[in-house]
Amino acid sequence: AGCSGGNVEDPVSMGSGQTTITIASGENNQGGTAAQTSDIYSFTYSGTKITVNTDISSVIAGIGEPTKCFESESCAYQGLDKTFSYPLFTIYTYPSGTADMISSIELKADAVATEEGIKIGSTKDEVVAAYGTPTEEKGSVVKYKKGDSVLSFIFTDDAVSGIVYDYAGLKTA
Questions:
Q1: Whether 31 contacts 101, CB under 8 Å
Q2: What are the strands, taking DSSP E only, across 31-148?
Q3: How far apart are CA 84 and CA 60, in angstroms?
Q4: DSSP helix, strand, coil percent of the chain (3-state; round to 5)
Q5: What are the angstrom distances between the C-alpha of 158 and each of 35, 132, 142?
């Protein structure tokens, strides 16, 4: 299934590698703009700042259409949860009115890095040097909290194997 803005009568099909996404823009952006979110972790790709709890429509306008899109009925909200897949990262959203708000961002390759220069393959020492003492550490996961965002690093053999930005204020019940 293609991703579409809430209440769009004509869902867009995913055919032959081409994806067209229609999303309401600017409405119900409870998270503000990237300029208002300096107290939150963000990720920049192709000059576009990507921040949790912001409307994904401005991100798509800045970086282009995803290679794949998946949507499913939200368990916690009225509407559809959506997954926007790009070659180097994946963005997950939750519905808020007519907007699709970013709930998490998962970096998938060493070709992209956090604002502080950490990427897949970085060492735990490099992460601690860039971010300081973790807010939480459990097993192979190290977490840093900043505002309403949580930045998690997953380690395999002392090297970063996963990086996830999450919206800490997401209500799941």
A1: yes
A2: 42-45, 48-51, 68-73, 80-85, 89-96, 99-107, 136-138, 141-146
A3: 9
A4: 10, 40, 50
A5: 34, 16, 11
The residue type at 33: T
Tell me the two tokens of residue 34. 């990237």
pLDDT tens per residue across all 173 residues of the chain: 345 443 332 233 323 332 222 222 233 333 333 334 468 999 999 999 999 999 999 999 999 999 999 988 877 777 788 999 999 999 999 988 889 999 999 999 999 999 999 999 999 999 999 999 999 999 999 999 999 999 999 999 999 999 999 998 876 54
